[in-house]
């Protein structure tokens, strides 16, 4: 009898920090999909709850006082993750500065790990944010999942209890997570067999 693989540790990174944001609704929904799976565990990294500094140290210099403490709330959780889901809106045809800031504070935490995307917004559903994130994460040696979850006119997809009304969105979430699981397991096995060389 074959041994069951260890659960994938999935970090759901919540990119929006705007007041009144819709991100918690979308995050609860995608987290519920992860929670239903036997092959994944989830850690929600909410950048509004774990703010990171926006001033970086000069190259080769230590971070400013307080920076290491702020990073300690985020960096170990990203390092421990086998895979990621980015939850992001679209701001001005791109993704939030808060998400880019969190990405830029880290490097090897992203290496040889897969990233799935859940984007939301108006008519575009956040797709332009995702396309730009693919370029950024390729530079950081991450693998992005082909199938995305894009919530067009997201505010109308949930009922008054914030439950998803759209079966197609639920199906898209399952497909994306199935692909994330495949890549997550494959890349974890590869990293365990041979450390990734950036």
UniProtKB/TrEMBL annotation:
SUPFAM superfamilies registered for this protein in UniProt: Flavoproteins (SSF52218)
Gene3D superfamilies referenced in this protein's UniProt entry, alphabetically: 3.40.50.360
GO molecular function, one term: FMN binding
Signal peptide: none
Organism of provenance: Streptomyces piniterrae
Protein's name in the database: NAD(P)H-dependent oxidoreductase
Domain NADPH-dependent FMN reductase-like: 9-155
GO CC annotation terms, alphabetical: cytosol
